[in-house]
Design a protein that fits this description.
This protein starts with 15 loop residues before the first helix and ends in a 9-residue tail after the last helix. It folds into 2 domains: 293 residues, no CATH class; 101 residues, no CATH class. It has 428 residues and is an all-alpha fold. It is globular and about 65 Å long.
Length: 428
Amino acid sequence: MAPAPPVTGSPPPEAAGPAHVAVVSFLAARAAPAGGFWVALAGGVALARLAERRGARLGFGASAAAMLETVAIIGPARLGVPLTQALTAPMLGRLHARRVGFWPQFLACAAIRLLHNTATTAFFIWVIAGGLDAYAGTYDAIGRRIGIEVGTADALVLTLVSLLAWAVFATTVQVLVYRRGLWGWPSNDNDSTEGEARTATNTPEPGGGSAVRFPQRSPTTRRFDPRAVAFGAVVAFVLLLASTEWVLLGAVALWLAIAWALSRPDREPLAAGAVFAAVLAAGAFVFAIGGGLGLEVALRRALRAALLVAAATWLRAAAGVEGLRAVFQRVLGRIRRFPSAPEAAGVLDQIAAERRLAAAARSLTELVSEAPNRPKPILDAVLGWVRREAAAFRPPDGATPSMPLRTRAADWALMASAILPALALPLG
């Protein structure tokens, strides 16, 4: 594999703070079993502030960097939970800078949220649930138990109404919270944070380093080049989308099992991946059974759902945090002509310090616990934490060394083997 061209351009240091806050918020939103929308609001406010002050290009770059950093840390599963806010926060920040009112902001944000949620719902219907008939059939089976007949058109109408209702509610909350956070942010970010740097998550310990240390696996323990791992995971994902035939599912499962055994993976993502795989597989099984597809089809669709999550979990476990960051940096280097790609690469380099996240989360918990148990004081405590954490964060001195990547014979063998399950695809 040829090395990617280097990424030029250095984002201003103040971009790292809001991106760091977004990483903390988006990670928590993806990890939370419920309420991810509410948790992600804090990160969205920080990104909106950055775009308001420094422009949309840097705002979207920092937003992309924050999302990529969360993938590097916990993998790609449940990426869509904070995605709407990552997409809309820089836009809302620029609209606020131009003194655009509530309703134009609401309409722009609601349109993006509705498109995103419609796309994820369509993926669930046709990939996980087994198609429109199975999806509508499950609604009909539930409706018959309470004496209501639900047809395909009725199921689609109910789904559309629920998407519209959520878009209206969530967008209203998001825009109001962002506006409150941005209006309350001092014109000079340092005005309200002087003397508070001692609470920052990167306060050094005696002898250097961070106040919170996370064990990190050395990159030399990796058996495979992270680029080869990413290629294999993508191929497995695409093959699983192509068919649910037993022979293909068995071939992909066998390949994943062998690849997992050979790749010296991290164990941290395994528990969360197993839980998410079980939940998604159960959902696929219930909709297939409820839709009248039969037990055999339901089992195949449940297995495919579990394998989709398994491929994503293996990607994070086998490539590692440093490896995925290195892959993202090289991809951003290759698409450097796209707007915000150089900014995303620079910000990603500045926030590559997962050891600081626990201290940031702990400081937020302390502030919220001290606030009165009412919505407005809790919201103001969170917004205060966003301002303080963004201002106090400092990028590490010097450039973060990138993980060296070198493709060897074992990596080419992994990539070639990833294509072999395609031989099990049904012909015609």
